[in-house]
């Protein structure tokens, strides 16, 4: 991929999406406001209530955190004793190498780079490859993002037997039937049922911000056997999440109707985006209904052309023909169409 206009610009965008400050600096003449399609965040967020002012003037009560975990557990189809709230999935995945103590990890790739980084920082040996390569490796832990970011690839019913399996289900709300959590963790019984040893060696990560469109709330969850869930949750102290996260999560996870309407809408919007990309010279490779991965021989040039029009997408350092597109807000479809058409020239 031809990088953005300088080494400084390239480094700003190749780590992950959402670098709007870097985009403004790299393309100062781009029209504002920017249309940020570089992340896989629902552009029409859940209308969450805010925390009561009194809740902001004190520390969250453990009972409030427990209520949030119970609401999330019901939405996930698991037992509440298997769920621990965390200040975002990112924080949880960074804590896992320390808690699990595995000395080697196989990351099913290509995928979100934070997983490999977390294990390397913990001193573990890290390998990256396909699911088949990972599950046949000698690694003590295997990390699977399911469905995957950025290509939407998925594995149904992943199982490793007695090794650690970390399943990152950050985008599984779009395809809930893929979740391994209900199969393994629906029962409060910790031995003899609910998956037995396989459940004991599996950790599931769930994200709030992506599907509900509120990443700044910084809310995530770990699902595991009760003792392990407690050990992971303890990494974040007595107050793992904020009053705002508790208020938003309690409302969102009990709103089944919004969740179902949103899944249908996202699927329609993803199909609309596929058609728009295809009409403008991109081949859609996959993704989820929150983002689409597309390819073009001149993807580097198209990235820059779109950025000059104030549209930020996600390039990939190891895949020079790829760009990832998030969904626009309803009012931004015409602007995206015009930018895509203009970027072809």
Task: Kindly describe this structure.
- With 345 residues, the chain is α/β, with parallel strands linked by helices.
- 40% of the residues lie in helices and 16% in strands.
- The chain contains 15 helices and 13 strands.
- It has helices at residues 7-13, 20-26, 53-56, 62-76, 89-100, 114-121, 131-135, 181-185, 196-200, 209-212, 226-234, 243-253, 256-279, 299-308, 333-343, and strands at 35-36, 83-86, 104-108, 125-129, 141-145, 164-168, 202-207, 220-223, 283-288, 291-295, 311-312, 314-315, 322-326.
- Strands 2-8-7-6-5-3-4 form a seven-stranded mixed beta sheet, sandwiched between helices. A four-stranded antiparallel beta sheet has the order 9-10-13-12.
- Helix 4 (62-76) runs parallel beside helix 12 and helix 14 (299-308) packs across helix 15.
- It is globular.
- The two termini are 18 Å apart.
């Amino acid at each position: 991929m031809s990088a953005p206009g300088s080494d400084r610009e390239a480094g700003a965008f190749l780590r992950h999406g959402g670098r709007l400050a870097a985009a403004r600096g790299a393309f100062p003449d781009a029209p504002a406001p920017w249309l940020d399609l570089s992340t896989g965040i629902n552009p029409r967020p859940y209308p969450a209530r805010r925390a009561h002012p009194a809740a902001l003037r004190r520390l969250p009560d453990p009972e409030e955190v427990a209520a949030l975990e119970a609401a999330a557990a019901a939405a996930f189809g698991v037992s509440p004793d298997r769920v621990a709230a965390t200040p975002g999935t990112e924080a949880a995945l960074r804590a896992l190498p320390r808690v699990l103590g595995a000395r080697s990890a196989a990351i099913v790739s290509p995928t979100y780079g934070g997983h490999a980084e977390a294990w390397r920082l913990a001193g573990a040996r890290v390998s990256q490859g396909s699911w088949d390569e990972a599950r046949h490796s000698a690694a003590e832990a295997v990390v699977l993002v399911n469905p995957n970011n950025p290509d939407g690839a998925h594995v149904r019913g992943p199982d490793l037997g007695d090794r650690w399996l970390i399943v990152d289900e950050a985008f599984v709300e779009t395809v809930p039937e893929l979740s391994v959590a209900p199969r393994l963790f629906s029962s409060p019984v910790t031995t003899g049922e609910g998956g037995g040893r396989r459940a004991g060696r599996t950790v599931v990560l769930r994200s709030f911000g992506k599907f509900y469109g509120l990443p700044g709330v910084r809310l995530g969850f770990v699902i595991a056997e009760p003792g392990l869930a407690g050990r992971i949750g303890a990494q974040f102290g007595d107050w793992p999440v904020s009053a705002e996260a508790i208020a938003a999560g309690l409302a969102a996870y009990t709103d089944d109707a919004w969740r179902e309407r949103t899944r249908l809408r996202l699927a329609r919007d993803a199909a609309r985006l596929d058609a728009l990309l295809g009409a403008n010279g991109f081949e859609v490779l996959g993704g989820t209904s929150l983002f689409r991965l597309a390819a073009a021989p001149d993807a580097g040039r198209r990235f820059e052309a779109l950025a000059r029009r104030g549209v930020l997408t996600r390039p990939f350092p190891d895949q020079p023909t790829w760009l990832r597109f998030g969904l626009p807000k309803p009012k931004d479809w015409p602007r995206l169409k015009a930018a895509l058409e203009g970027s072809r020239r």
